[in-house]
Fold these 4 entries.
Entry 1:
Amino acid sequence: MVAEVMAELAGLEDAKIREVNARHGDDHGVNLGKLRALAKRLKTQQELAYRLWETEETAARLLALLICRPKAFERDELDVMLREARAPKVHDWLVNYVVKKSPYAEELRLAWFVDPDPVVASAGWALTTERVTKKPESLDLPRLLDVIETEMKGAPDRLQWAMNHCLAQIGIAHAEHRARAIDIGERLEVLKDYPTSPGCTSPFAPTWISEMVRRAR
C-alpha cells in the first residue's frame, strides 16, 4: 500500500510547483488540491500514516497528516515528529491539523514555547496564538507582549513570524491591549515592508490589527 501511494505521489509531481515551493523552503512538487483529493479517497488510515511519515518525503508526510487520527499519537511521538518536520508546510500542518487536536496540546505548548530550537519554539508560539484567540484564560497577555517587545526584532525568521502572529492576535482579540500591540508593531517594524498581494492583508501587525478590527465592526 505504501509503495502504491508513493507511486501515485510521484505521478503527481510537477516541476513548476516544486520550483515555487522551493522558494518557501518546501521540497515537494505536488499540487495541494490533488494531495487533499488523494487523502479524501484514502480516508483515515493511522497505520498508513505512520508508514508514510517514515519515508521522510515531504509530500508523503503531508499526506500522512491528512489521513491520520490526531488523538492517536502519544505526547513524545508528537515531539519527535515536530523536531523531524523541518519543511515549513509539514511543520505548519502538523501543528494545525494534528497537535491542536491532541489531548497533549497544552503540555506541548508549554514545553515548545521555551525550547532553544527556534523552529520548535515557533510551534509553541503558534499554539499560544490559538490560546490567545480561543482560550485566553490563565494566559499572561502583558507578559507575552513583554517577550515580543524584547525578542521579536532579532528572532530567526520562523520564530519571528510566529511571534508577530501572536502580537497581531492579541491586538485583534483583546481591545484592552490593542494600543500597546500596535505601538510595539510600529516601533519594531517587523514585516513592515513584506510584499503583499492585492486584496490580501499585510502581515505588518499594526495594519493587520486595524484591518481585522475594522472588518469586525
Entry 2:
Amino acid sequence: MREAGGLAGAEAEDETNDYLARELTVPVGAAGADPGGLVHALTYVPRAAAAGRLRAPLVVCCHGLGESGLRVAPVAQRLAAAGAVAIAPSFRGGGAPTTGPTTAMTIGTELADLDAVLKTARTWPFVDTARTALFGRSQGGLVAMEAAAAHPAQIAALTLWYPALAAPASVRRRFGRLDAVPETFTSRVDGRDITLGRDFARDLWTRDVEAAMRRYPSPVLLVHGEADADVPLAVSQAAARTLPDARLERIPGAGHGFGDANFEAAVGWTVDFLAWAGVLDD
C-alpha cells in the first residue's frame, strides 16, 4: 500500500539498474480556488543513496501540457543513473486519467504540486538539498522557471527543453481581453487539442515571465529544436538574452520533442550541464 507523502516499492525491481524505482504520493492543500488533492509521482533513487551510503542531489522533472510524469520519466531515469534522486510528478489536471480534468489545471496548480513534491523530497535523509535542480519540457519549462524565480536560493540550476515561456503573451494575443476568454477553449500541442478552462487563461494573463527570468541568477540550460512549430526557437533565444546566466543548445531539424539521436544529445547536454553546475557529481 502507498502512503501519502511516502515512497512505495515498485512491484518488480530491475537489478541491472543503478537506481530503485518507487511511487510517491504527496498531498496538496487547498488554496483559494484550488481544492487541493494528491500528486502522484515516479521516483528514482540511486541504490547507494537508498542504502544510506551517500546523500544524492535532487532533480524534479516537469512534464508538458496534457501529459503525465511518464513523458519525462526517461529523462528522470537517466538522471538517476547519473546519481540524482529524480522525481517525475504527474501534475493534477495534466492529462493522465487519474489526475483530474485538464480544465481545472493552471500554472498556479502545477506550481503548488511542484512545491509539495519538493518539500516532501527535501525531508528525505538521503537527499542533499543544497544540490536541487529542476528540469522542464514545454509547459513544464515555464512551471520550472516560475518556481525557480520564486525561490532562487533553493534551486541550484535549471534545464529547460523548448520551454513555453511565451505562453502568457500568447494567450493575451489570442483573446485580446480577459473577459473575452470562453469558459473552455483548446490549445494544440504535439498535434493534439487540449481542453483548458478560463482559470488557466486568467492565471497566465498577468504573469511576467521576463521579470521572473531576471530574478533567477543561477545557471540555466536551454535546449531547443530549430524546427519547433509549437514553441518557436525564438522563445529560447529571447530567454538566453534575458536570463543572467544561460546557455542555449540548438538541434537542427528537431521539432517539439526529441527522439532517438536528438534525445540522446539533449540528455547528454543535460547531464553534463548539471555536473558543470555542481548539481551532479563529475
Entry 3:
Amino acid sequence: MVEKISTFITEDLEICDLALLIEDTMIIADLHLGYEQYLNREGFMLPSFQFEKILDRIDRIRESSGAENIIINGDLKHEFGRVTYQENRELKRLLDHLEENFNNIILIKGNHDPIIPYISQLKNFKILESLKFQDHLITHGHFIPERIETRTIIIGHEHPCIGLRSGERIEKVKCYLIGPFRGEKLVVMPSFNFVTEGSDILHEAIISPFLKESELSKFRVYAVEDFKVFDFGTFGEVARIMREGG
C-alpha cells in the first residue's frame, strides 16, 4: 500500500502533486502530448522523454490517492490544427493505459483540442466542453462559460509556475493558484507537462480570461515539487518579498 500524500485546500478538494482529488476522482490538465516534436520542428533539438514521465506520474498519483476515475482538464495534445504522428501514437498508448487503470475517463476540451473528438472512435470515454462535478465547475480556462452555478471553478490553461530568484538564477516551480472570482473560489492547476515548468506568474503576462478579470494579489500560491506542497502565502506577499529581496 502506497502512503497517501495530499493536502486539502477546501473541505472536499485535495492537492496530490500535479493532480487535484475529489473523492475517488483525480483531475489533471495540460499534458500537451507531442510537444517535443513541435519544438524539434521549430529548431529546438529535444529528445522525446515526457510521455513516459506522464505515465509514471499518473500511476504514482493513482497509487497514492486510490483514485478510480480521471478527468483531463484540456489540452491533451499540443498541435492546434492536426494530429501529428507522435501525438497519434502517444494518444493511443495513453488511452490504452487509462482504460486499464481507471473506471471512468473524461476529457474536457481545451484550446489545443479542436479536432480531438475523432479519438472518441478509438476508446469509449466522454469528451465535454465543461463539467459540473458535485459543486465544482471543471472547465479548461481559455473562455468563461456563460453560466457558473458552482461555488468552486477549476481551470487549467494558464500553466502557472513561480520563479524564485537566487542571485542571477531563477528557479521555476509549478504551482496552484487559489482565489476569488465573481464571489466564488477559482482554482488554477499547473500543467501535467514535463518539458517546461510553465508560465512564471511573477514575470510573465497571464493568459486566462479568468485571471485577467481577477485580483491576482489575493490569490494563494501553493507550489508543488515531487508530491510536496508548499504554501507560499498570497501572490501579493510573494511579489513583495521578491521585490524587496531583488
Entry 4:
Amino acid sequence: MSRAERQLRYLASRPEPVLVLTETARSAGCEFLAERFERAGYSVTFPRPPHGTRERGVMIVSRLATSPLRLPVNYLPHRVAAVTVETTTGPLEVVGVYVPSRDQTEAKVTRKRTFLEGLAAALPTGKAGHRLVLGDFNILEPNHVPKYRTFQAWEYGFYTGLAAAGYADAFRLLAPDALEYSWVGRTGDGYRYDHAHASGPLTRHVTGCRYVHEPRTDEDRLTDHSALTVALALTATAPLDVTDPAAAELTAPALF
C-alpha cells in the first residue's frame, strides 16, 4: 500500500470535521488525496503551488460546507488556504498556513521573512470575529524550552505579533507550562513548530487543544510532524453528505 493510501485511510478515520494538511505539493500523492476526498463529497480547498517548482502549500478538507475566504497574501499565496464555515453562532474562519523553513542563506532568510511579514499584514484583527489560524509555522514561542540560538528576533516577532493583534495560542490556553514538541530532529531535539491561534472572541469556545503524535511516532510514520487537534464548542449548520473516501477499492498513484 502506498504512503498516499495509508494517509487517506488515517485521515478518513479522524473525527475532526475540518482537516488542515500542510506541506502539500503539486504531486501525484496530493492530487490523489484531493480527488478521493472530493469524490466522497468533501469540500476540498487546495491552492496548488506553481508548476515546475518544488514549492509546498496547504490543503483544507472538510465534512462541512465551506466558502472561500480571500486573504491578500501576495507572496507565496499557495502557502495559505482559508475557508469560512457557518455555525449557529456565526461564521468561523479557518486559515491554514505553511510557513517556509530556512537555513542561513540570505535567500532563504529573505523568503521566510517576506512571507511572515505579508501574512501578518493580511490577517484580520483577532479582536473581532471567530477565526482559527493554524498550521506549520516553522517558528517557536519566545520562551520555548529548550532555547535555540538559530532563531531570530523577527521570527519570534511573528508569534508575539499574533498576540498583539488579538490572537491566543490555543495550546497554551489549556496547557500553559506543558513541554510538547511537534517535530524532533535526528539529535533528539524537540521543536513546537505547529500552532493554532484563536481570535479573542473564539477563545471562549476552545474546549481542547492537543498534539497527536502517532502519525509521527508510529511504525507506519505517515509524516515527520505530529498533528495538532483543536476542539471548539460550536455547532456547524451545513454538514455535507459524505461517504468514506477510503471505502472503495483504491488505485494509488506510483509517486508521492
